[in-house]
Amino acid sequence: MSTQPQPMDTARSPRDGLSPDCPVLLTENLVLRAPHAEDIDAIAILANNPSVATMLSRMPHPYGRSDALEFVRKSALGGNGNCVYAMTEARTGHFVGCCALRTHSEDALPEIGYWVGEPHWGRGYATEAAHALIDMAFSTRDIIHIDARCRITNPASRRVLQKSGFQHQGSCMVNVLALGATVAMDRYRLDRRTWVSLINWSARPGGMSSRRAGS
After folding, report:
1. C-alpha pair distances (Å), 98 with each of 129, 167, 173, 193, 210
2. I need a labelling partner for 165 at 20 to 30 A (CA). Which of 41, 70, 90, 137 fits?
3. Burial class (CB in 10 A: 0-12, 13-18, 19+), 83
């Protein structure tokens, strides 16, 4: 991760719908920006997959275009969390998934979440987006740690968290909307001290870097 975001000359479009606390984020392969109306069809197609929905707590299944429309609408109003991003490929602009930084109450510390559509699995997009979101959170906010959860049956998500420096904190039971049931999830936490020790990993082989647009 890098704490030295590089500015861009391109002005931020008003339709990005982002507050100063949620800037556009650029990585090597991705642009993270607010969900747009143009994303609705892609969101509906990629999210309507039980392999995605059953790994998340709040995604319904089946997932239709009306669900995607409501998701984009609520994201624009801040109803889905503090910072909700559409992951798009930097080269093509194609929507590939979502990531978010959320708090569940005024006093709660942020929790990171992400999902990637199945056709785009195995490309490192979730890890790349997580690194950028973590860098932004620790660089711009006075927080001591970031939390995360993943189903114990989701090794891919667990690898993303481990590669991002998160440490296992135990397990909990969480309701999964798509299943209509409560399932076991692992809890993870990344503290600021650990993040500081990792911010230079972009200089190492296989490291990632992130940049903020409009900085």
Report:
1. 9, 23, 23, 27, 17
2. 90
3. buried
What lies within 8 Å, CB to CB, of 203 at 6+ separation is none
Q: Taking a C-beta distance cutoff of 8 angstroms, is the pair 174, 180 a contact?
A: no
Q: What is the mean pLDDT of residues 60-85?
A: 89
- Each residue's pLDDT tens digit, 80-103: 567 999 999 999 999 999 999 987
The pLDDT of 22-41, averaged and rounded, is 96
Q: For 4-23, what is the mean pLDDT?
A: 44
Q: Can you identify the CATH homologous superfamily of domain 23-145+195-212? A: Gcn5-related N-acetyltransferase (GNAT) (3.40.630.30)
Question: CA separation (Å) from 68 to 14, 30, 72, 86, 151?
Answer: 21, 21, 6, 12, 23
User: Which pLDDT does position 94 carry in this prediction?
Assistant: 97
37, amino acid identity: A
Q: Which of 96, 73, 88 lies closest to 24, judged by CA?
A: 88
Element (H, E) at 102: strand 95-102
Q: Distance between CA 16 and CA 37 in Å, rounded?
A: 11
- Of 90, 78, 79, 74, residue with least CA distance to 32: 90
Looking at residue 163, its amino acid is K
Query: Which residue is listed with tokens 């420096």?
Result: 165
CA-CA distance, 139 to 9, in Å (whole number)?
21
Confidence of residue 105 (pLDDT cuts 50, 70, 90): low
Q: In the chain, what are the domain boundaries?
A: 23-145+195-212
3-class secondary-structure state, position 189? strand
